[in-house]
């Protein structure tokens, strides 16, 4: 059988995976529906394997990359989950203080992909902290299915407190110069938006396809850089109202909608990945942080 390509997969399959990844359908229903697309020599196992994350081959920056100093730390989150684990990374060849970036995971805990994104941020010239909101439940369990189930057991506002605490930890860290921003993906995109609402001292926020706040938008001080996939109808539905409120209050923001890109287009471990959109969005993100965190 020929090797599957993204173009071989119908958009309905990506939409179905999005429903499953966000707990709108059970695994059994997901597999039942997915099987209807296993036609023409395409088997269900091969289709499932193709759309599932690949954390072995897709990591860009290895954990032991000599260009970085990366270590797991714990910080206090008294209003959240207590002691929270996170991956702290910085360039190994820099002795002075650097701006900080909090990197917020999707709805499945600190998986290898988000750790990789944290290391990418550090390699770009920042000290990054990628927390694991699943720490109170034992941490990321090693696979995304169990990770999603664990994250559903935590209150999302309590998890928001964990990431707000990460901001304060990083801002006061001896390797950080006190200028701190946040970037987050999916659930992490919502966290990024909410941190902008609730942390007046936050200096930059970059939500990737994140849910939008509906209250207290007038409290936002941080400049925003927002990334959306054109095909992500679920998240995009809330953007017009959010944008109108940002405009009404004179908030500083940039927003980009990437043509023909799905929700999760930045995640290079799944076929929803759109290389052109992801690389452009990440370049814009790093340039935005370098401009605002100074």
Q: What topology emerges from the helices and strands here?
A:
Elements: H1 11-21, H2 27-35, H3 44-51, E1 68-77, E2 82-91, E3 98-104, H4 112-123, E4 127-131, H5 144-152, H6 156-171, E5 176-185, H7 187-198, E6 204-208, E7 224-229, H8 233-236, H9 239-248, E8 253-258, H10 275-292
Parallel strand pairs: 3-4, 3-5, 5-6, 6-7, 7-8
Antiparallel strand pairs: 1-2, 2-4
Describe the protein's architecture and organization.
This protein is an alpha/beta fold and 294 residues long. 43% of the residues are buried. Helix content is 37%, strand content 20%. Helix 7 links the parallel strand 5 and strand 6 (204-208). It is built from ten helices and eight strands.
